[in-house]
Amino acid sequence: MSSFGLNPALSAPSSEPTNLAALLKARQQNKTAEAEKPTTAPKKASVVSRRAAPATNGSTGKRSQSKDSTTRSAKGGSTYSGIINRYASTYGVPSALAHAVVRHESNFQPNVRGKAGEIGLMQIKLSTARGLGYTGSAKGLYEPSTNIQFGMKYLAMAQKLGGGSTCGTILKYNAGHGATRMNPTSAKYCSSVKAYMRAL
To answer: Into which family does the record put it (predicted)?
Structure first.
């Protein structure tokens, strides 16, 4: 056979490695592109995180909430100050203590209702008010003057039973006249009341 006759046979397979090399190169490029995709995802996430950061800025949020709360307290305190002072004087409760208790109980908001059925500015229960001589309905206890009258009467009794001390008074008012041991909730309540009294 002549060498000329062998050339077609030799040239045909020589193109296969070329095609195979091109295919392998294309696959390698695809793998490289896929490998690069995860590296771009965290960048997008970090952009979202940076955008979300201002919304979760605790210091700014807390300042605005605290300022709003203080404003509401100041307005409410001045609105009901006359009634609070009148019944505090009637029942022998220090004015600062009376204001501090109303502030802690309801933040001077007359329409607040507690989870256990406590009503109004001083968060007094209907059953407690009835025990103090109240004959009206639960709805009637939302009326500021009525609520403060019976709430202050109960606070005065708590003060007497608590020996006149602030925390003793708060324990009896918060946990009931029969309470004898300070609990974490009443202790925290007392600290809040003392802080408010100092600020007056």
So the answer is: Belongs to the virb1 family.
Q: How many whole angstroms separate alpha carbon 169 and alpha carbon 155?
A: 7
Q: Position 115: which residue type?
A: K
Assign 168 to helix, strand or coil: helix
Tokens, residue 5: 């006759």
Same domain, 22 and 106: no
Cα–Cα separations (whole angstroms), residue 138 to 85, 114, 128, 142: 24, 13, 11, 7
The model's pLDDT over 32-46, given as tens digits with 9 standing for 90+, comes to 555 555 444 444 433
> What digits encode the pLDDT tens for the residues 46-81?
333 333 333 333 333 333 334 444 445 555 568 999
What are the backbone dihedrals phi and psi of residue 67, each rounded to the nearest 5 degrees, phi first? -65, -45
Query: Does 26 lie in the same domain as 97?
Result: no
**124: which strand partners?**
119
Asked whether residue 63 is domain-assigned, the answer is: no
CA atoms within 13 A of residue 138's CA, in its CB half-sphere = 11
- 77 assigned to some structural domain: no
Q: In this predicted model, what pLDDT tens digit does every residue of 160-169 receive, in sequence order?
A: 999 999 999 9
